[in-house]
Design brief:
The chain is mostly helical. The chain has eight helices and no strands. It has one domain.
């Protein structure tokens, strides 16, 4: 009987842990900065944006997904490089990624020379009035 109770406890505990992981509190400073860069970017990040992205990519307080997103943005030229698409798809489809990270990955996959309405629509997790 104790084994069944313990198994039930493990199932409930893991479900709660997965739920809290997938539900992020909101955008982090890094994700807000990247959203602003995407919205103002044409063809590739500016020099100032590249400095910010390099900082995010090297910052130990950034999540692994944030570092991967920043690296993908650093290499962006009109579109995402083919070798970055798999990484972005993994983040976009990951239930453990924060919603803001998934939104950024989706926006980058849709990016084509500039931020159009499809890119802006992917960034609904962010306050676009602050990001402009």
């Amino acid at each position: 009987m104790n084994k069944k109770l313990f198994a039930l406890y493990l199932i409930v505990a893991s479900a709660c842990a997965m739920h809290s992981t997938a539900q992020a509190a909101g955008p982090t400073l890094a994700t807000e900065q990247m959203a602003k860069i995407i919205l103002s970017m044409e063809k590739q990040p500016s020099k100032d944006a590249k400095i910010t992205l390099e900082d995010i990519a090297k910052d130990s307080s950034s999540t692994g997904n944030e570092r991967q997103l920043a690296n993908s943005m650093l290499h962006l030229e009109q579109k995402v490089r083919p070798e970055d698409k798999a990484t972005l798809m993994k983040i976009w489809l990951s239930p453990s990624a924060a919603e803001t990270e998934r939104s950024l990955a989706k926006a980058l996959l849709r990016f084509d020379e500039k931020s159009d309405d499809r890119v802006k629509a992917a960034l609904t997790e962010f306050n676009l009035s602050k990001a402009k």
